[in-house]
Amino acid sequence: MSAPRIITVGSVNLDLVAACETLPRPGETVTGATFAQYPGGKGANQALAARRLGADVSMLARVGKDPNAELALALLRKDGVDLSRIVEDEAAQTGVALIGVDASGENFIIVASGANAELDARDVEGAGPADAVLCQLEVPISAVIAASQIASKLFALNLAPAMPVPAGLLETADLLIVNEVEADFYGDALFRGDGLVAKTLGRDGSVLYRAGKEVAHMPVYAVPVVDTTGAGDTFCGALAVALAEGMEEGAALRFASGAAALAVTKEGAQPSLPWRSEVEAFLADKA
């Protein structure tokens, strides 16, 4: 079977990560942290996840003309993601995410969008066709709407971060992906279309719905948690790859859950993203 072609439209960031024993409360200063920087951004993370899991991936995004751009794109370029549609913005800086991670792997994230906020429909037009198009909400909604019109078999939308979107996007998407917070934000509107809805539940695993009815459920895999940053993006990329390949819905959810489980066992959003062989070995061991 040939590799599915996936177009990812979304954000590219440089992640600045401080790892500490406990995350600060409002007004509190925490010392003794260690610092690292990694490529990130939900769009880039999902693109790289899909690439490492076997897809032929193109990334549509904006970065600044600054040193952070090369750092932010480094792993995408190294692992063979097509970057020919990346736009260099003359006025805006490459996006940056400030991330705190505590000893249990929990995190907080503050994003300075930079060039991501300038991506628009003109940057997306003319792309395709593709087996799947994968989007998130860290770029303007005009770009997401344009992405939904790219000729593809599967339009997948990760509704993160949660914000109001046109009802038509929710109703016509072939796959919506949310966590518990996002699911509460959108409520019943998630289930007005005929597509799939994937809901991640943290320690309670994940559920896949069609037309409001549960079609698959996966408990969480017990693994040592190092850093949860990027786990949700891994899940999104993996589920898009699996469905684009034609996997049965339950098998696709299992594949995505296994990939996400492996992602939390390493530091950094993109360095932690697993390869196809690692996921298949992990799932074979759990069978």
TrEMBL record:
It is found in: Cytoplasm. ATP binds at N179, T200, L201, G202, R203, D204, G205, G232, D233. Pathway: Carbohydrate metabolism; D-ribose degradation; D-ribose 5-phosphate from beta-D-ribopyranose: step 2/2. GO terms for molecular function: ATP binding; metal ion binding; ribokinase activity. The active site is at D233 (proton acceptor). One of its GO terms (cellular component) is cytosol. Residues 5-275 form the Carbohydrate kinase PfkB domain. It catalyses: D-ribose + ATP = D-ribose 5-phosphate + ADP + H(+). Keywords: ATP-binding, Carbohydrate metabolism, Cytoplasm, Kinase, Magnesium, Metal-binding, Nucleotide-binding, Potassium, Transferase. K(+) binds at D227, T229, A263, K266, G268, S272. It holds the Pfam family PfkB. Its EC number is 2.7.1.15. GO terms for biological process: D-ribose catabolic process. Requires a divalent cation, most likely magnesium in vivo, as an electrophilic catalyst to aid phosphoryl group transfer. It is the chelate of the metal and the nucleotide that is the actual substrate. Activated by a monovalent cation that binds near, but not in, the active site. The most likely occupant of the site in vivo is potassium. Ion binding induces a conformational change that may alter substrate affinity. Substrate binds at N13, L14, D15, G41, K42, G43, A44, N45, E138, D233. Its cofactor is Mg(2+). InterPro entries: Carboh/pur_kinase_PfkB_CS, PfkB_dom, Ribo/fructo_kinase, Ribokinase, Ribokinase-like. Belongs to the carbohydrate kinase pfkB family. Homodimer. Catalyzes the phosphorylation of ribose at O-5 in a reaction requiring ATP and magnesium. The resulting D-ribose-5-phosphate can then be used either for sythesis of nucleotides, histidine, and tryptophan, or as a component of the pentose phosphate pathway. This is Ribokinase. The lineage of its organism: Bacteria, Pseudomonadati, Pseudomonadota, Alphaproteobacteria, Hyphomonadales.
